[in-house]
Specification:
Elements: H1 3-16, E1 18-19, E2 22-23, E3 35-36, E4 45-48, E5 68-75, E6 82-87, E7 98-110, E8 113-117, H2 120-127, H3 131-142, E9 151-156, H4 188-204, E10 210-215, H5 241-259, E11 266-268, H6 290-307, E12 316-323, H7 327-335, H8 338-341, E13 346-350, H9 360-368, E14 373-378, H10 396-410, E15 414-421, E16 441-443, E17 450-452, H11 454-463, E18 471-477, E19 483-488, E20 494-500, E21 506-512, E22 516-522, E23 526-532
Helix pairs in contact: 2-4, 3-4, 5-6, 6-7, 7-9, 10-11
Organism: Dermatophagoides farinae (American house dust mite)
InterPro entries: GH (IPR017853), GH30_C (IPR033452), Glyco_hydro_30 (IPR001139), Glyco_hydro_30_TIM-barrel (IPR033453)
Keywords: Glycosidase, Hydrolase, Lipid metabolism, Signal, Sphingolipid metabolism
Length: 533
């Protein structure tokens, strides 16, 4: 073949992989990623606009043939969900690296689900996009061709990720109290941002979405400091009229959403109750000690929920909803009390202070209170004050951080993992106190496109395969070069998620008594999901 002809063929092939000035990266599951680099020291984002947008296959094309493994791989340098097929063998072909044995005779917790939060900021940013792109974002999270989220967190009132501080019962200067909640009404933000997106998610999801509500602050007049933020708590005692009114306030929220056709699976009692103990705390908060929360549950909230038809059989009440280092204290105070624990179903915790305590405290809490589920109810990157770059486009370290935390939580009896904002702007907002953070999806300032961060694909390695009802399997290993977790799904697929945070490849050998031996190289700085039947 003449050299000039060879060159023309090579250029033609190369051109076929160029779209919009960007090389399409390896992604054989669904529509391919069109990448863009914002910082060459990082990885890349995948662009979604009116012309291009990647997606996953509805069914992932997973082989159900015996001894066949389907692998999906994402890494720092090139791949986003690269699909490949391999086979178990009857002989050992690898004598190095990490060896694991899948032990199906020892099982642990059942998965409730994965999801994100319907914040005002999420709705505002999605609202900047045209109708088709806006719908695409929710499809990217909740549809069979997206992350397949099965849970959602809905704030009761405003959060810092609103454009203003607000509650549902703010009074004028001449009105001091509203114990009958005569002035209660949902905010414009509920009708503009939260309710429409929740309904769309419910319509496209493969699963019934388990929604749970979380309050950041009661109305200002209920609090000791008269403000939604800052050092303050509910006036009086847990059996007093202010606490009673607050319980009624939360129930009215549930009722108002019912009128909109939205029902809640669960509710946390207070988002980060420790925040309200901090002087001059910037955004919406409310102090509540473990003892106050315990007394509030058995004196007021629990009985009111029961009387209103939101008993434990209908609404899963979760305690704490704060940082992991506090989990043992809160569980001991509330769940050891028979007057309160009969109203409670689970414990919510956040990841922001994880460096201050080992994940073993989560296991200890499970072993002491095995009848209560554990749920990671909030996490995001960019929240650390030392992270000066709040939104870091294409940051692979943050994808690894997500994967590592999810694996750690799941390996210590956690039944689900909920991300924070689902869409933010390039600054990491809007946020009325400028508490900017990162998100798996970032919407451009002009609303012409959005970017799927590496964090998005990191989540996909778990959320697309570890479906609700999956049961964690025991893994036996002598080395820990890799981080991993294994599950059996309701349809009897085995799912193994593997994280390699090392720069170099790590050989992995899998022993499965049912199928044989599989040897495989896990690329450096990669996340892989292995599925077999």
């Amino acid at each position: 073949m003449p050299d000039i002809l060879k060159l023309m063929i090579m250029l033609t092939i190369l051109f076929s992989f160029i779209i919009d000035g960007n090389m399409i990266m390896s992604m054989t599951s669904g529509k391919p990623c069109v990448p863009r680099w914002f910082n060459r020291k990082h990885s890349f984002v995948c662009i979604c606009n009116a012309t291009v947008c990647d997606s996953f296959d509805d069914d992932d094309r997973i082989s159900n043939e015996s001894k066949t493994i389907t692998i999906f791989s994402s890494d720092m340098h090139s791949d986003r969900f690269l699909r490949s097929e391999h086979h178990f063998k009857n002989v050992d072909t690898l004598n190095r690296g990490q060896t694991i044995t899948i032990n199906r005779n020892k099982t642990f917790q059942t998965i409730i689900g994965f999801g994100g939060a319907f914040t005002d900021a999420t709705g505002i940013n999605i609202g900047k996009l045209n109708d088709q792109l806006a719908k695409n974002v929710i499809y990217d999270y909740f549809s069979p061709r997206g992350l397949r989220y099965s849970m959602g967190r809905v704030p009761i009132g405003g959060t810092d990720f609103s454009t203003r501080p607000y509650s549902y019962d703010e009074l004028g200067p001449k009105i001091h109290d509203d114990f009958n909640l005569s002035y209660f009404k949902l905010a414009a933000e509920d009708f503009d941002y939260k309710i429409p997106l929740v309904k769309l998610a419910q319509n496209i999801s493969h699963y019934p979405i388990k929604l749970f509500a979380s309050p950041w602050s009661p109305p200002a007049w209920i609090k000791t400091n008269g403000h939604l933020n800052g050092l303050g708590r509910i006036k009086g005692k847990p059996d007093g009229i202010y606490y009673e009114t607050y319980a009624t306030y939360m129930i009215k929220f549930l009722r108002e959403y019912e009128k909109q056709g939205i029902n809640f699976w669960g509710m946390t009692i207070q988002n980060e109750p420790v925040d309200g103990t901090i002087p001059a705390f910037k955004f919406n908060c409310n102090a509540m000690s473990p003892e106050e929360q315990r007394d509030f549950i058995f004196e007021t909230l629990g009985p009111q929920l029961n009387a209103s038809g939101f008993g434990i059989d209908k609404l899963k009440l979760m305690i704490m909803d704060d940082q992991r280092p506090f989990i043992e204290k809160w569980a001991n105070v509330i769940l050891s009390d028979k007057r309160a624990n009969k109203y409670v179903s689970g414990i919510g915790f956040h990841w922001y202070l994880n460096s201050f305590t080992s994940v073993e405290v989560v296991s200890k809490t499970h072993h002491k209170f095995p009848n209560y589920f554990l749920l990671s109810t909030e996490a995001c990157e960019g929240a650390n004050p030392f992270q000066l770059e709040k939104v870091s486009l294409g940051n692979w370290d943050r994808a690894q951080s997500y994967a590592y935390d999810i694996i750690q939580d799941l390996n210590h009896y956690t039944s689900g993992w909920i991300d924070w904002n689902m869409a933010l702007d390039p600054e990491g907002g809007p946020n009325w106190v400028k508490n900017f953070v990162d998100s798996p999806i970032i919407v451009s300032e002009d609303g012409s496109e959005y970017y799927k961060q590496p964090m998005y694909y990191s989540l996909a390695h778990f959320t697309r395969f570890i479906e609700p009802g999956s049961v964690r399997l025991d893994i036996q290993t002598q080395h820990e070069y890799l981080n991993m977790v294994a599950f059996e799904t309701p349809n009897k697929a085995t799912v193994l998620v593997v994280l390699n945070r090392n720069k170099h490849e790590v050989p992995l050998k899998i022993h499965d008594d049912k199928y044989g031996i599989f040897s495989h190289e896990i690329k450096g700085h990669s996340i892989q999901t292995l599925v077999w039947y």
